[in-house]
Amino acid sequence: MKPDEIEAKSFAIIDAEAGPHNFAPDAWKIVRRMIHTTADFEYMQMVKISTNAVAAGINAIRKGCTVITDTNMAKTGIRKDLLAGFGGRCECLMADPRVAEQAKQRGVTRARVAVETAAPMMKNGIYVVGNAPTALLHLLEMIKNKAADPALVVGLPVGFVNAAESKAALMETNVPYISNVGRKGGSTVAASVINALALIACERT
């Protein structure tokens, strides 16, 4: 089978096994791709999408926004060609030597410094967290202090320390978000959300 045939069959299996649900069509395209990436149907119960978050993400991509990720793994998984079709790009500053040096000097995590460094390119953009709760928590602090203003936050950090808590904090804000409850998540899942949004944006052209 060709790759597109495998994907189509996979989505057909997911649709059949998922059964009836209350997701709007565009939201389901996102959740379905998350399930496709993980083979985990629990995302149907875990995913939380704020009001207008999907529209905010699609509009940002169609306007050629910058997508910033907290890991190079997430950046690698994102379809840069789809973003480039609208004039957008994907960035990750975690490996930037300047970020590493500043983090060392200040005695803080690179994730924290990377968020701060990305602030200028975050305006009307999308910030994607698939790994570091530290990044998400600091981003929320910056948003509260009006030091950052992303159009959408994809908050899906994975792990046992502050992952669930950072996502719960995101869900208490007025920032458009796509997230999930609990410890699960990860860079590949976060990338799948952006890919789903980008594909929907392409359908609107």
TrEMBL record:
GO MF, any single term: precorrin-8X methylmutase activity
Keyword vocabulary terms for this entry: Cobalamin biosynthesis, Isomerase
Keyword flag Repeat: no
InterPro entries associated with the record: Cbl_synth_CobH/CbiC (IPR003722), CobH/CbiC_sf (IPR036588)
Pathway, per record: Cofactor biosynthesis; adenosylcobalamin biosynthesis
Family as reported in the entry's similarity comment: Belongs to the CobH/CbiC family.
Name the record gives this protein: Precorrin-8X methylmutase
